[in-house]
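Late entry, written up from scratch paper. The run itself happened at the end of the previous shift, but nothing got recorded in the book at the time, so transcribing now.
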Amino acid sequence: MRPALPLAAFLLYPVLLCCASAAFSQAEPEVEGNNRPLWEAGVAGIGLGGPAYPGAAGNVNRTIVVPWFIYRGPILRADGGTVGARVMKTETLEFDIGFAAALGASSEDVAIRRGMPDLGFQFEFGPRARINLLRPTPDSVVRLDLPLRGVFEAKDGINARGVSFEPRLSYSDRDIGGGFGLTATAGAVFGDRKYTEFLYGVPNAFASASRRAYQAKSGLITTRLQFALTRRITPDIVVFGYARQDFSGNSANSDSPLHLKNGGTSFGLGATWTIGKSSEKGAP
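Output as recorded:
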């Protein structure tokens, strides 16, 4: 057995927990408050689809059912799509270190990548600053997120794939009327050369008549807009949907043979069912 496998299993546990947290975060606008339970647990189901990566012509569709667990401790946190440790928290500024995750894609699902290695399950680890810019109401917040994270691929062990930076400006409101919640986000994704090479590079060994060799450049990967709506059906059941639009026509590697579209739409529909929760309140 390879020595890397026990490490991979150790690292993938918080990453899988992060995927569950991310599914829950789509169904719960991220607005701090003192009335949320210390922990919650349940089941989340989501159907989602979208480009395999920004600029891809091929879409990837998934249906996922996962148990989820949320923990809102003053330091250890599994909430808001990340799993990690909160290092600092004030009324306007938060700094944490944690995981985020993204699904991979088979090269068989993306015609231009056929014959190339698959894009495996990816996770990110590193620091994130969160700045609360404005609180229009007690149930809403305007926030700037600044995550800078190393990117890793879980395939035949754990492999480092570079560094990403994804600044995001968001507006979240737990109650816009009729039991609905809203989150609107505008952001951009940047990568160092190693990460963009992972997404857009074509080594000489994989060049062909329809796919020339290409060395990727560091820089902008895509800008994007996302809107998510939630609706609480019962105290324990929430349905949600989101749509995200990528704009990658001006990206650093829009001339890559693997970059075929200047835009792409992702979407998801799902529900969460809370099975249990703590009577003790968590940290805001």
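The chain has one domain: 4-33+44-277.
(Scratch paper discarded after transcription.)
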